[in-house]
Amino acid sequence: MRTIIIVEDEMLIARDLKRRLEQWNYRVVDMVRTGFDAVSKVIEKGPDLVLMDVHLKGDMDGIEASSIISRKCDASIVHVTANADDATMERIHGTRSHGLIIKPFCDAEILTVVERALLLRGMEGSSTITS
Length: 131
What we know:
This protein is α/β, with parallel strands linked by helices.
């Protein structure tokens, strides 16, 4: 079963994503609210996929957290955002993102982007942690 960590500071959205993913037989191994927690939990749990909200509360946003995660392990990262403005999109393109989900989202969009990201990850190799 594929494992996923959800990084979302709005718990209603995180729970909704978790419910949807679990109905499609994905295993959500954690839900965290900050970029710092995301980096820590991804390194600790080594998920197949990270659903990363772009705008997080705190000192580290989702794009910065994604950059750190990409240097530490090879989990697929899918960004989630309500703000698809040019500046945000440019920052996302500078990361090793495997997809983008725009809020508000629908089941088909989530499933398609998640499946594609996991397929790309499978082509690149399995998850390993680097020091």
